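Archive entry. Fields below.
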Amino acid sequence: MKTIIVEDSRLARAELKELLQEYTHIELCGEAGSPRDALPIIQKERPELLLLDINMPGKNGFELLEELDYEPKVIFITAYDNYALKAFEFSAVDYLLKPISKERLKIALDKVFLLKEPVLEQVEKVDLLDIDNRVLLRDGDNCHWVSLHEIYYFESCANHTQVMWGSSKAIIYRALSKIEERLPEKHFFRANRQQIVNINKVDQVEPWVKGVYRLRLKSGVEIDISRRHAARFKEVFSL
Amino acid sequence: MSSFCCLLWSLIYEISVSQREKTLLTLKQLQLEKNMKATQLNTLAGKIDPHFIFNALNNIRSLINEDAEKARSAILVLSDILRSPIAKSSQDKVTIAEELVLVRNYIALSKIQFEDRLNYIESIEHHLMSALIPSMMLQILVENGIKHGISQLPDGGVLSLYIYEKDQKLICIIANTGQLLSDAQTKGFGVGVKNIQERLQLLYLHNASFFLRNDSNEVVAELMLPLEYKL
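PREDICTED_STRUCTURE:
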């Protein structure tokens, strides 16, 4: 598996390389000391896995991910754990604290390989909704019986999700990623870290800055497709 | 009778004035302690930024393979930092020589993390070694110069510390390559600066000052204190 290390301390990189030696299926195809130096290497090699430090010169690890036009698997590596929540917003495979033990690294890498296996069973378990389904949404004491057709978009707020339909909105007490699992992907598209949009409600698509697309919904709301998600958007919706 | 009244009143007045002065003094003492607490929390008592400690440990672990002797001495430096007497003491002021022990150790460990990216220049007029400064003041400024300055530059830079006497004042300059962002004020940097200024006000009234400014390609922190020596 093609892997790149992005970490600003040379000694920390040496330590990681040492730890990775026993994994013959990890093919280290580059290393960089800053996001600036990492970007061209990543674009060229398109590694499947990034071992990524968070605090780095110039940009941090999250900002580097925002600039990529695909989604590699990411194991964050950091000295202190005040970023864990944010890391999971970027669907990190794992989050390791320095110094890293052999055992802890093995757990993280096992997770990476598990993700590679087709997860058919899991897909069946999730109760997928159809676009014609209705869902029960509550706001305060009011109940709404809403067809998925009517929903404009879902937006993550803290660890809840806000859902917008017609001129109403409601809070669902589940994470956006959990809701995403149940939505029909032909109709609902993950536009960025915070929002999933109903494709049928899109009125216009405009190219925006630096590979970002801007969607204008029929309700007038504008939603940006981040660079990370733009590639998939083109892939799915091009002829 | 009237003279007795007068005496009584002046007595009450005296008491209330001295009471008020006492209160003011206690208040000042409390403010100093509070400010000191905040400073300690920000740095050593909290203590040093945990990032710094864990990065150091991680680097030392790697050094064990690469240069065991260097790893052994790095462990001693880290130990000295963690039990630095300055961090623990509650005294308001320390000598420059005392503070420098901590600063130099901190730089030594940072050099292991940043290698060629961190260049340190130090120039101190020797007779000032026993001059007094607010404790941990240089340490905080050096730490910030590295954290917000050098560590943010992919190609690194220079951190310089100059201490000299000018017009009977003690001047400390800490400069680092880089520029203050215009939004630095909102990013918590403002809090640090305010904390320092508050502490100077409590310790020296209006006889000390602190400024942070951009100067060509450097960020310069300038501290001016009344010249005092340890007795």
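CURATOR_NOTE: The radius of gyration of chain B is 22 Å.
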